[in-house]
Amino acid sequence: MLIRLILLFTIVPLIELYLLIQVGRYLGAFPTIMIVFITGIIGGLLARSQGLSVQRQIRMDLQNGIIPTDGLIEGLFILIAGALLITPGMITDVFGFFLMIPGFRRWFKNRLKERFKKRFEAGQFHFYSNYRTTEWNKDDGS
């Protein structure tokens, strides 16, 4: 897992940098900078509007006594999409915009749930915790 993260945080920025340089060569520096700037602004606005929509849905679910698991997952996807759209780059923008599309989020959420379910049923999914309990005795007043 650590190797994947190292590759993700080194290879993706290098590819992004390469793409920005190529786009800059083709369009020029100013248009390239404006593309990055505009996608960042649009991404922030989209994340805000989509996030507020999901927040309303979560609030309604809670008021109706429903555990809002799907809403929380969609909220996480919107948070990730917003971060990707604010990050300068072309690849991150494409993934960010895809995560902003509600239909794609639903499809991705269902795929992720299926994957976790299969791994859990196969015994390949483990939870690790450093949680420790302390003994509390009502009689000693602690």
UniProtKB/TrEMBL annotation:
InterPro entries from the UniProt entry: FxsA
A cellular component term, taken from the record's GO annotations: membrane
Pfam families: FxsA
Keywords: Membrane, Transmembrane, Transmembrane helix
Signal sequence, start to end: none
Transmembrane segments: 5-21, 27-47
Identification of the protein by name: Phage T7 F exclusion suppressor FxsA
Source organism: Candidatus Scalindua rubra
